[in-house]
Amino acid sequence: MTYRAPVSEYEFLYRHVIGFDRVSATDKFGEADEDTVGAILNEAAKMCHEVIAPLQRPGDLHPARLENGVMRTSPGFADGWRAIADGGWIGISADPARGGMGLPMTLSATVNEMMAGACLSLQLAPLMSQGQLEALEHHASDALRDLYMPKLISGEWAGTMNLTEPQAGSDVGALASKAVDNGDGTYAVSGQKIFITWGDNDFCTNICHLVLARLPDGVPGTKGISLFLVPKYLPDGDGNPGAANTLKVVSLEHKLGLHGSPTCVMEYDGATGWLVGEEHGGMAAMFTMMNNARLGVGSQAIGVGEGAYQQALAFALERKQGHTPSGTIIDHADVRRMLAEMKADLFAARAIMLACAVATDLATATGEAEHRARAAFLTPISKAFGSDTAISVAQTGVQVHGGMGVIEETGAAQFYRDVRVTSIYEGTNGIQAMDLVARKMMDGGDAACHLMDEIEKSAEAARAYNPKMAESVWQANESLREATEWLMGQSDMNDRFAGAVPYLRAFARVLGAHYHLAAARADPGGARERLARFYITRMLPEHTGLLAHAQAGAEGLFDLSADDLAAG
C-alpha cells in the first residue's frame, strides 16, 4: 500500500471547519486564496507520492550510518531532500525577501503532514531547518539572517537544534555546555549534546547547529542560558563553507524506529559560534523554535497515523476471513469499529492541529492578542493529542493486520515504531499537559473560556440541524467548563498536575466533537455526518471519566508511596 495524501480532506477542513478564509482575508496572506491553496496542496502531494513515499521502507531497512566520521544517509534520501528543497517546501512560510514563499503556517503544517505520512525519517530534516529559520528570523542579527537564511531555505545548508545533554533532558537548565567570548564577535562553544536529529548528512554542504550553552557570567538555571549558531564549516569571505569547525558526530543512537533519521551525539570542542539573540536570552529564542516545532510534531504524527490508517484499511478490504457479505474482514464488527475509531480520531486531531495553525497565522497577520493566546493554548493540545492519537492509530493498524501486523515485511509495524517517539520529543506529552494547566492558564483561564464559549455557541446553532448530537456536545462542553473552573481554583500545582494528562485529553475530546459537528453540518446526510455521529456517540463519552480523573487531585496519587509501588 502506497501512501496518498488526503488532499480532499485538507480542502474540506480549510473550507468548512477551521475557517481558513479568515487567514486568506488578511493583507499579509491575501494571495493564499482557494485556487492557490489547492494548487499548492496538489503539487506537494504529487512530490510525496512520487518521490518521498518510496523512501519509507529503504530508510527503515538501510539506516543512516557513521563510517570513519562520515555520515552515510539512507538510499534515495539525497534525491528526496533535493526534491523537497527544489520545490520550495523548506521555506514555504519563510520570509520572501530571503527566498521563502511567505505562505501561511497552516499550509506549512499541512505539507509537513503529507511528507511525514510519506516518510517521517526524511521529513524530520526539513522540519529542523524550518525551526531554525523561525529562530533566526526573530532573534538573529541582520548579518546572520542574510548569510544563513537563504542557504537554509534553498536546502544548500541544513539546520539542527541542540538542547539535550546526558544530565539535562527536560530540565534544560541543568546543561553544562559552556561558551566563552573570543573578543572578535564570535564565541568558543564546548560541550556534548545528545538526541540531535539529523546532526549531519551527506547531501548538504554545511550543517548549522543552534546550540544552548552558558556564558561564564550566566546564572544557574534557564535564565543563564544563551543560544549560539555553530556551523560545521566556517563560512569564508564569500559566504561559502570554509575551514572545518571543531565539532563532530561522536556516535549515532540505535533507536526503536526512525532508522533513516540519524540521531547524533554531538561534541563541541571550543567550536566557533555566533550569538543568536541577547546574552542569557537563549531560552526565549529557543522557545520561538520549539513552539512551532511542537505544532510540527503534532502534524508529523498525524501524517504517520494517516499512513497507518490507509494501510490498515487496504488490508481490511483485501483480507478474506470468515463468512461476511464482502468476504473480507472489513465486515467484521470489531474491525469496522477499529477503522472507524482510527478515522474519526485522525479527523479530530487534524482539525485541532490546523485550528492551531490558523490561530498562529491570524496572530502573525493581525498582531491581535486573542489570536496569540488561542495559538499558545492549542499548541500543547495539538502536540500531545496529535501524537497520542497517531500512536494509538498505528498500534490499532497492527491489530487490524492480525498476525501479519507483527511481520516486518508488511510495513505495519514500522508506522508504530516510527511514530512512538512523537509523544516524547519536543517536550513529553506529560510536560505538554502540565504546561496547559499551568502556564497556559496564567491568563485566568481566558483563552480556555473563549474556546469553550465558541463550542457552546456552535452547539446552540446546531440544535436545529441535529438536536441529539448538538446536545451531547453542549453537555460535554459544560462538564469541561466545570472541570476548568475546578482546576483554576487549585492553588497547589500538584493538584493540577496530577490530572493534567486526562484534562488535556478531555479538552481534545470535546474539541474533536466540536469540529466533527461542524463537518456534519457541512455534509448533511453524507459520510462526514455519519463519522461525526460515530465520534460523538461512541468516543466523546470518554470525556466523563477523564474529567473525573482530572479533578481527583494529588492526594490519592501520593498516598501510594514508592514502597507501595515496589511491593509484590
- The percent of residues in helical segments reads 55-70%
CATH classification class of one domain? Mainly Beta
Please report the number of helical segments.
20
Radius of gyration: 24 Å
Backbone structural class: alpha+beta
Number of strands: 11
> The CATH topology of one domain, please?
Butyryl-CoA Dehydrogenase, subunit A, domain 2
General form? globular
What is the first-to-last residue Cα distance? 46 Å
Beta-strand share of residues: 5-15%
Residue runs with pLDDT of under 50 for 5 or more positions: none
Report the biggest beta sheet as strand number plus sense, adding barrel if it closes. Answer: 7 strands, mixed
Q: Quote the average pLDDT.
A: 96
CATH architecture of one domain: Beta Barrel
Provide the descriptors you would attach to this structure in a database record.
alpha+beta, Four Helix Bundle (Hemerythrin (Met), subunit A), seven-stranded mixed β-sheet, 56% helix, globular, 11 strands, Butyryl-CoA Dehydrogenase, subunit A, domain 2, 568 residues
